[in-house]
Specification:
single chain; 207 residues; alpha/beta; 3-stranded parallel beta sheet; 6 strands; 17% strand
Length: 207
């Protein structure tokens, strides 16, 4: 590991509402989370209470080893994995206690789940305690595809989370501001959906 990676992780703040120290690891080579964090850090003073959690980049298949060092001072570590199956995805699944597969209501996304499902099942052969589930993301409200995606996913041996995140301009505005939707639009439908998803994931993790 590069020595500046660990030193770049600040003292973990307490995330609002849940009281947890959270670390976000960006394992996606596209670096969307890192780009968002850079915008956040440019626009906000790190001491003004807007920095809810640190974000670091770790796009290596050694993530299972590195996460033990990076995550030792945190209550929860969230890994944003690559969208395509590769060694980093396999290592990320192996390093995880729970794998959440985000699914957009599209035929392409559903087809793409075949490989990730096979990889999860292979991992569960050696780690049967691994939890997993689908999360419906960017759903268009009251659309046929939004309703049909549940039927298409039922063939896979993992649950579909009850919480669904719909397409909403509030998310795009919050990203552009370097914040979360809970900060920019705390009373919006988008914020409510994110809170419901977070609560459901925490409950599943505690089961």
């Amino acid at each position: 590991m590069a020595p500046d990676l660990l030193s770049s992780v600040p003292h973990p703040p307490l995330a609002r509402n849940f009281g947890q120290r959270v670390l976000l690891i960006d394992a996606d080579p596209q670096g969307s989370a890192i780009t968002w964090a850079a915008i956040r850090n440019q626009r906000h003073d790190n001491n003004d209470g807007d920095i809810l959690f640190p974000v670091v980049s770790l796009t290596t298949d050694a993530i299972q080893k590195e996460i033990k060092l990076l995550g030792k001072d945190f209550d929860s570590v969230i890994i944003d994995g690559p969208p395509r199956i590769n060694k980093v995805v396999a290592a990320t699944i192996m390093a995880s206690d729970m794998v959440v597969v985000p699914i957009q209501p599209s035929a392409y996304d559903i087809w793409a789940t075949e490989e990730i499902n096979e990889m999860i099942e292979m991992t569960k052969e050696t780690r049967p305690e691994l939890k997993s589930g689908f999360a419906i993301n960017l759903k268009i409200r009251n659309s046929v595809l939004g309703r049909d995606v549940h039927d298409a996913l039922e063939k896979f041996p993992r649950p579909i989370l009850k919480s669904e995140v719909c397409s909403n301009m509030a998310f795009k505005r919050s990203v552009g501001a370097g914040k979360t939707v809970l900060q920019t639009a705390p009373k919006s439908e988008a914020a409510r959906e994110i809170m419901e998803l977070a609560n459901e994931l925490l409950e599943a993790a505690d089961e």
